[in-house]
Every structure is written in structure tokens, then in C-alpha cells.
Amino acid sequence: MEKPYIIKGGQYIDNRGQICFNNDFDLTKVKRVYTIENKSVDIIRGWQGHRVEKRWFSAISGAFMIELIEVDNWESPSKNNHRHQFELNADKMDVLCVPEGFISKIQAVEPNSKLLVMADYLIGEVKDEYRYALDYFE
User: Model pTM?
Assistant: First the structure.
């Protein structure tokens, strides 16, 4: 199975200002986009994920800590599966690729942070949302 990975972005700064970019991210598989803004850095969204759908995350304001777990059994996942941890910062425009088969826990680490989420399926195209209690894997 494919593992999560970062597609590195970049930044160009001159006397006019700054351009952030990600020239290596191929958007051809993206069918839907939305943003997440938590009310405070104390809010944690998780655990939620998809057996079939793929997601891509990019911080467009502030920064986020994202933890991922590959699910071994969707009805009763092991509680000690390996965690992958990533921090996304808006000034880098990195894109986190989350393959199908993973669940995520998302927390803003700066106030007023905004996360761009991209998916490879439209709403209602597949029934593929799995949620677990926030303390399930603790």
C-alpha cells in the first residue's frame, strides 16, 4: 500500500512580495476541494478517514499538525498501529498526500489557521467515511 508523503512546495521573494507555489503537485485527480478552520488551537478533529478515497492537505494560512494511521481492520482497528506525523505550514505550500486506507487527526498549531483539503471523489460518489472516537487510539 502507498504511504503518506509530502510533495514539497516552494517560495520566491523579491522587492514586490512573495509567491508560494507547488509545481510538482498534479491536480488532475482532484474532484473536490474544501477548507477547514478550527475555532481554536485546542480543537482536534479526528479520527476520520477513507478506505477508498485519497486526500491531499495544504495549509493556506497558519500551520497544522496532522497524524495519520493506516487502518488494518475498518470494523475494529488495532489500537497500536504506527502513526505518521506531519506539520504543514502555509509559508511552504507543501502538500501532504494521504492515500486511501488512512485515517487522520488534525489540529491547528497557530490561531486563524486554514487547511485546504482536496479529494478524488465527489460527495455521494462513494460511501466511504469512517470515524473513530478521538481517544480510541490513545
Answer: 0.94
Please, is 48 exposed, middle or buried when counting C-beta atoms within 10 Å of its C-beta (0-12, 13-18, 19+)?
Answer: middle
Q: pLDDT digit string (tens) for 74-103?
A: 999 999 899 999 999 998 899 999 999 999
Overall domain count for the chain? 1
CATH of the domain at 94: 2.60.120.10
Sequence-separated (6 or more) residues with CB below 8 Å from residue 10: 20, 21, 22, 23, 92, 93
Query: What domain range is 77 assigned to?
Result: 5-131
- The answer as to whether 60 is a domain residue is yes
51's grid cell: 478506505
Contact 31, 122 (CB under 8 A): yes
Q: Write the pLDDT tens digit of every residue in 17-47.
A: 999 999 999 999 999 999 999 999 999 999 9
Residue 137 belongs to some domain of the structure: no
